[in-house]
Amino acid sequence: MKVFIVYAHPEPKSLNAELLKFSVQVLKEDGHEVQVSDLYAMKWKAVADRDDFPWLSHDERLDYATASGEAFTLKKQLPEIEAEQEKLLWADFVIFQFPLWWYSMPAILKGWVERVYTYYFAYGIGEHGGERWGDRFGEGTLKGRKAMIVTTAGGREPHYRPRGVNGYMEDLLWPIQHGIFFYPGMDSLPAFTPFEVGHRTTPEEFEKIKFNYRERLLTLETTPIIQYRSQNGGDYDGQQVLKPGREGKGITGLAIHQINPRVKSYGGES
Protein backbone atom coordinates (compact mmCIF):
# COMPACT_ATOMS: atom_id res chain seq x y z
CA MET A 1 0.00 0.00 0.00
CA LYS A 2 1.14 3.55 -0.75
CA VAL A 3 0.81 5.87 2.26
CA PHE A 4 1.05 9.65 2.05
CA ILE A 5 1.49 11.51 5.36
CA VAL A 6 0.81 15.24 5.51
CA TYR A 7 2.50 16.39 8.71
CA ALA A 8 2.19 19.73 10.50
CA HIS A 9 4.21 20.49 13.64
CA PRO A 10 6.84 23.22 13.98
CA GLU A 11 9.23 21.46 16.39
CA PRO A 12 11.56 18.70 15.07
CA LYS A 13 12.17 17.46 18.64
CA SER A 14 8.50 17.23 19.56
CA LEU A 15 6.55 14.15 20.55
CA ASN A 16 4.69 14.54 17.27
CA ALA A 17 7.96 14.42 15.34
CA GLU A 18 8.94 11.22 17.14
CA LEU A 19 5.53 9.76 16.40
CA LEU A 20 6.00 10.59 12.72
CA LYS A 21 9.38 8.83 12.59
CA PHE A 22 7.86 5.86 14.38
CA SER A 23 4.97 5.62 11.92
CA VAL A 24 7.24 5.74 8.87
CA GLN A 25 9.39 2.98 10.36
CA VAL A 26 6.41 0.76 11.19
CA LEU A 27 4.79 1.25 7.80
CA LYS A 28 7.97 0.52 5.85
CA GLU A 29 8.72 -2.56 7.96
CA ASP A 30 5.21 -3.75 7.13
CA GLY A 31 5.96 -3.48 3.42
CA HIS A 32 4.26 -0.18 2.60
CA GLU A 33 5.64 2.67 0.51
CA VAL A 34 5.62 6.03 2.32
CA GLN A 35 5.87 9.66 1.28
CA VAL A 36 5.84 12.52 3.81
CA SER A 37 5.10 16.20 3.33
CA ASP A 38 6.55 17.91 6.42
CA LEU A 39 4.91 21.29 5.91
CA TYR A 40 7.02 23.30 8.36
CA ALA A 41 10.25 21.79 7.08
CA MET A 42 9.10 22.54 3.53
CA LYS A 43 8.30 26.12 4.58
CA TRP A 44 4.95 25.63 2.93
CA LYS A 45 3.20 28.85 1.95
CA ALA A 46 -0.06 28.73 3.86
CA VAL A 47 -1.80 31.73 2.29
CA ALA A 48 -4.00 31.22 -0.77
CA ASP A 49 -3.59 34.46 -2.70
CA ARG A 50 -2.71 36.09 -6.02
CA ASP A 51 0.89 34.90 -5.79
CA ASP A 52 -0.37 31.40 -6.64
CA PHE A 53 -1.12 32.70 -10.15
CA PRO A 54 1.89 34.65 -11.44
CA TRP A 55 0.36 34.67 -14.93
CA LEU A 56 -2.70 36.58 -13.71
CA SER A 57 -2.82 40.28 -14.54
CA HIS A 58 -2.63 42.51 -11.48
CA ASP A 59 -5.44 44.59 -12.95
CA GLU A 60 -7.72 41.56 -13.00
CA ARG A 61 -10.02 40.85 -10.05
CA LEU A 62 -8.93 37.69 -8.23
CA ASP A 63 -11.48 34.90 -8.09
CA TYR A 64 -9.35 32.24 -6.40
CA ALA A 65 -11.57 29.28 -7.29
CA THR A 66 -11.80 30.23 -10.96
CA ALA A 67 -8.09 30.96 -11.19
CA SER A 68 -7.17 27.67 -9.52
CA GLY A 69 -9.41 25.79 -11.94
CA GLU A 70 -7.83 27.52 -14.91
CA ALA A 71 -4.35 26.81 -13.59
CA PHE A 72 -5.22 23.14 -13.09
CA THR A 73 -6.90 22.72 -16.48
CA LEU A 74 -4.22 24.57 -18.47
CA LYS A 75 -1.34 23.04 -16.47
CA LYS A 76 -0.20 26.42 -15.16
CA GLN A 77 -0.11 25.48 -11.48
CA LEU A 78 2.88 26.29 -9.31
CA PRO A 79 5.20 23.26 -9.07
CA GLU A 80 4.68 22.84 -5.31
CA ILE A 81 0.89 22.62 -5.72
CA GLU A 82 1.10 20.13 -8.57
CA ALA A 83 3.60 18.02 -6.62
CA GLU A 84 1.21 17.66 -3.67
CA GLN A 85 -1.66 16.74 -5.96
CA GLU A 86 0.51 14.05 -7.52
CA LYS A 87 1.22 12.63 -4.06
CA LEU A 88 -2.51 12.42 -3.36
CA LEU A 89 -3.12 10.64 -6.66
CA TRP A 90 -0.19 8.30 -5.94
CA ALA A 91 -1.49 7.33 -2.51
CA ASP A 92 -3.82 4.53 -1.49
CA PHE A 93 -3.98 5.90 2.05
CA VAL A 94 -3.60 9.47 3.35
CA ILE A 95 -2.75 10.47 6.93
CA PHE A 96 -3.07 13.98 8.32
CA GLN A 97 -0.91 14.25 11.46
CA PHE A 98 -1.08 17.40 13.56
CA PRO A 99 -1.57 18.70 17.11
CA LEU A 100 -5.11 19.85 17.87
CA TRP A 101 -4.78 23.62 18.16
CA TRP A 102 -7.84 25.66 19.08
CA TYR A 103 -10.19 22.86 18.12
CA SER A 104 -8.73 22.46 14.64
CA MET A 105 -5.61 21.86 12.57
CA PRO A 106 -2.65 24.27 12.45
CA ALA A 107 -3.05 27.10 9.91
CA ILE A 108 -0.25 25.75 7.73
CA LEU A 109 -2.18 22.50 7.16
CA LYS A 110 -5.41 24.35 6.41
CA GLY A 111 -3.42 26.44 3.93
CA TRP A 112 -2.14 23.26 2.32
CA VAL A 113 -5.71 22.12 1.77
CA GLU A 114 -6.83 25.49 0.40
CA ARG A 115 -4.00 25.62 -2.15
CA VAL A 116 -3.79 21.92 -3.12
CA TYR A 117 -7.54 21.22 -3.30
CA THR A 118 -8.01 23.29 -6.44
CA TYR A 119 -11.13 23.70 -8.53
CA TYR A 120 -11.55 20.76 -10.94
CA PHE A 121 -9.13 18.70 -8.86
CA ALA A 122 -10.93 18.36 -5.52
CA TYR A 123 -14.23 20.11 -6.22
CA GLY A 124 -16.35 21.19 -9.14
CA ILE A 125 -16.25 17.57 -10.35
CA GLY A 126 -19.08 15.85 -12.21
CA GLU A 127 -22.42 16.96 -13.54
CA HIS A 128 -23.92 20.09 -12.04
CA GLY A 129 -27.47 20.92 -12.94
CA GLY A 130 -31.02 20.69 -11.68
CA GLU A 131 -31.00 18.77 -8.41
CA ARG A 132 -27.57 17.23 -8.90
CA TRP A 133 -24.67 19.01 -7.26
CA GLY A 134 -21.70 17.23 -8.75
CA ASP A 135 -19.65 14.22 -7.67
CA ARG A 136 -18.84 14.84 -4.02
CA PHE A 137 -19.30 13.27 -0.58
CA GLY A 138 -18.31 9.74 -1.52
CA GLU A 139 -17.46 10.51 -5.14
CA GLY A 140 -14.83 12.61 -6.86
CA THR A 141 -11.18 12.64 -7.85
CA LEU A 142 -9.90 10.89 -4.71
CA LYS A 143 -12.49 8.11 -4.58
CA GLY A 144 -11.00 4.71 -3.81
CA ARG A 145 -8.58 6.04 -1.21
CA LYS A 146 -8.79 5.93 2.56
CA ALA A 147 -7.66 8.58 5.02
CA MET A 148 -7.12 9.01 8.74
CA ILE A 149 -6.44 11.81 11.20
CA VAL A 150 -3.67 11.42 13.76
CA THR A 151 -3.97 14.27 16.23
CA THR A 152 -2.68 14.87 19.74
CA ALA A 153 -4.75 16.71 22.33
CA GLY A 154 -3.64 18.26 25.58
CA GLY A 155 -6.99 17.76 27.31
CA ARG A 156 -8.23 14.66 29.06
CA GLU A 157 -10.23 12.08 27.13
CA PRO A 158 -13.50 12.75 29.05
CA HIS A 159 -13.32 16.40 27.90
CA TYR A 160 -13.97 15.17 24.35
CA ARG A 161 -16.86 12.81 24.97
CA PRO A 162 -20.38 13.72 23.77
CA ARG A 163 -21.12 15.49 27.08
CA GLY A 164 -17.58 16.77 27.64
CA VAL A 165 -16.91 20.49 27.92
CA ASN A 166 -14.67 20.55 24.82
CA GLY A 167 -17.30 18.89 22.66
CA TYR A 168 -17.39 15.45 21.11
CA MET A 169 -14.12 14.75 19.29
CA GLU A 170 -15.89 13.29 16.24
CA ASP A 171 -17.81 16.55 15.87
CA LEU A 172 -14.64 18.63 16.17
CA LEU A 173 -13.01 16.55 13.44
CA TRP A 174 -16.11 16.50 11.21
CA PRO A 175 -14.88 19.31 8.90
CA ILE A 176 -11.79 17.23 8.11
CA GLN A 177 -13.23 13.72 8.06
CA HIS A 178 -16.51 14.46 6.30
CA GLY A 179 -15.32 17.55 4.43
CA ILE A 180 -11.65 17.40 3.46
CA PHE A 181 -11.57 13.59 3.25
CA PHE A 182 -15.06 12.43 2.20
CA TYR A 183 -16.01 15.43 0.03
CA PRO A 184 -13.49 14.57 -2.74
CA GLY A 185 -14.17 10.85 -2.35
CA MET A 186 -11.86 9.42 0.32
CA ASP A 187 -13.25 7.10 2.98
CA SER A 188 -12.26 8.05 6.52
CA LEU A 189 -11.13 5.77 9.30
CA PRO A 190 -11.80 6.82 12.91
CA ALA A 191 -9.09 9.18 14.11
CA PHE A 192 -6.16 8.11 16.28
CA THR A 193 -6.22 10.65 19.11
CA PRO A 194 -3.82 10.39 22.06
CA PHE A 195 -5.01 12.61 24.93
CA GLU A 196 -3.12 14.53 27.63
CA VAL A 197 -0.13 14.85 25.32
CA GLY A 198 2.48 17.53 25.98
CA HIS A 199 5.80 18.27 27.60
CA ARG A 200 4.64 16.42 30.72
CA THR A 201 4.16 13.14 28.81
CA THR A 202 6.42 10.53 30.43
CA PRO A 203 8.50 8.00 28.46
CA GLU A 204 6.23 5.26 29.77
CA GLU A 205 3.14 7.08 28.55
CA PHE A 206 4.73 7.67 25.16
CA GLU A 207 5.56 3.98 24.84
CA LYS A 208 1.89 3.20 25.41
CA ILE A 209 0.91 5.71 22.70
CA LYS A 210 3.37 4.08 20.29
CA PHE A 211 2.05 0.62 21.13
CA ASN A 212 -1.52 1.68 20.37
CA TYR A 213 -0.46 3.54 17.22
CA ARG A 214 1.45 0.52 15.96
CA GLU A 215 -1.71 -1.56 16.30
CA ARG A 216 -3.63 0.99 14.26
CA LEU A 217 -0.94 1.25 11.57
CA LEU A 218 -0.77 -2.50 11.16
CA THR A 219 -4.54 -2.71 10.63
CA LEU A 220 -5.12 0.21 8.26
CA GLU A 221 -6.46 -2.08 5.56
CA THR A 222 -8.93 -3.87 7.85
CA THR A 223 -10.11 -1.12 10.22
CA PRO A 224 -13.77 -0.29 9.45
CA ILE A 225 -14.35 3.11 7.87
CA ILE A 226 -16.76 5.74 9.18
CA GLN A 227 -19.88 4.96 7.17
CA TYR A 228 -20.86 8.40 5.92
CA ARG A 229 -23.86 8.57 3.63
CA SER A 230 -22.94 9.32 0.03
CA GLN A 231 -24.51 12.42 -1.48
CA ASN A 232 -25.83 10.65 -4.58
CA GLY A 233 -26.72 7.33 -2.97
CA GLY A 234 -30.41 8.05 -2.42
CA ASP A 235 -30.45 9.24 1.20
CA TYR A 236 -30.68 12.95 0.31
CA ASP A 237 -33.39 14.83 -1.57
CA GLY A 238 -32.87 17.19 -4.51
CA GLN A 239 -31.78 19.96 -2.12
CA GLN A 240 -29.15 17.69 -0.53
CA VAL A 241 -31.19 17.40 2.68
CA LEU A 242 -31.45 14.02 4.43
CA LYS A 243 -34.82 12.48 3.70
CA PRO A 244 -37.20 12.14 6.67
CA GLY A 245 -36.74 9.00 8.72
CA ARG A 246 -33.39 8.03 7.21
CA GLU A 247 -31.46 8.89 10.38
CA GLY A 248 -33.07 6.24 12.52
CA LYS A 249 -34.63 6.45 15.96
CA GLY A 250 -32.79 8.55 18.54
CA ILE A 251 -30.00 9.73 16.21
CA THR A 252 -29.37 13.47 16.24
CA GLY A 253 -26.74 16.04 15.31
CA LEU A 254 -24.01 15.33 12.80
CA ALA A 255 -24.44 11.61 13.44
CA ILE A 256 -27.49 11.61 11.15
CA HIS A 257 -25.07 11.65 8.20
CA GLN A 258 -23.62 8.29 9.20
CA ILE A 259 -24.97 4.80 8.75
CA ASN A 260 -24.87 3.01 12.13
CA PRO A 261 -23.12 5.84 14.02
CA ARG A 262 -21.29 5.11 17.25
CA VAL A 263 -23.04 8.01 19.01
CA LYS A 264 -26.82 8.04 18.65
CA SER A 265 -27.49 11.23 20.55
CA TYR A 266 -25.83 13.72 22.83
CA GLY A 267 -27.28 11.92 25.81
CA GLY A 268 -24.52 9.33 25.77
CA GLU A 269 -22.52 6.91 23.69
CA SER A 270 -24.03 3.85 22.09
UniProtKB/TrEMBL annotation:
UniProtKB keywords: Oxidoreductase
GO CC aspect terms: cytosol
Keyword Oxidoreductase: yes
Pfam family, one: Flavodoxin_2
EC number(s) from the headed UniProt entry: 1.10.5.1
Molecular function GO terms recorded: dihydronicotinamide riboside quinone reductase activity; NAD(P)H dehydrogenase (quinone) activity
Entry keyword Oxidoreductase: yes
All residue ranges annotated as the Flavodoxin-like fold domain in the record: 1-215
InterPro entries linked to this entry: Flavodoxin_fold, Flavoprotein-like_sf, NAD(P)H_dehydrogenase_qn
Stated family: Belongs to the NAD(P)H dehydrogenase (quinone) family.
UniProt name for this protein: Ribosyldihydronicotinamide dehydrogenase (Quinone)
